[in-house]
Amino acid sequence: MKLGAFSISLAVKDIKASKAFYETLGFSVFAGDLEKNYLIMKNEESLVGLFQGMFENNILTFNPGWDQSANSLENFDDVRDIQAQLKSKDITFASEIDAADSGPASFVVLDPDGNAILVDQHV
Q1: Going from the N-terminus, what domains does the chain have, and what CATH number goes with each?
Q2: With a threshold of 0.85, does the pTM exceed it?
Q3: Which of 9, 10, 17, 75 has the most crowded Cβ, counting Cβ within 10 A?
Q4: Residue 67, pLDDT score
Q5: Whole-number pLDDT of residue 62
């Protein structure tokens, strides 16, 4: 199962303070919009998403179809195929996608400790 690019999406209280903090760790803005209260910060192959006021808890994020630089991959496991594989293993979903659709889609599963895992395909 190829889950694609990995990042952590952090629910932050003050995006400007978080941006400054991660810049001291060597991260720089890779994508996002400070005025819309979200930034994707990158340090080499590590990605950290900063999101103010968008969700309550931190989220582990996988992006099938993307590499760590958000470049589209030719070969990847479609999010619907990943969902079907997980369903066959009796994984419980917090949100699902319609298997008949195509293109961008996402689903969420919770790990045994309640941590959200977002599988979010953009292609």
Answers
A1: 5-121 (3.10.180.10)
A2: yes
A3: 9
A4: 96
A5: 98
Q: What distance in Å separates the CA atoms of residue 31 and residue 29, rounded to the nearest whole number? A: 6
In tens, the pLDDT along 46-55 reads: 999 999 999 9
Please state, as a whole number, how many other Cβ atoms lie within 10 Å of the Cβ of residue 68. Answer: 16
61, 49 in Cβ contact below 8 A?
A: yes
**For residue 106, which amino acid is it?**
S
Confidence of residue 113 (pLDDT cuts 50, 70, 90): confident
Contact 12, 18 (CB under 8 A): yes
pLDDT in tens, 94-105: 999 999 999 999
Cβ atoms 86, 94 nearer than 8 A: no
How distant, in Å, are the alpha carbons of 82, 92, 105 from that of 88?
10, 10, 19
Spatial neighbors of 78 by CB under 8 A, at least 6 apart, are: 64, 65, 121
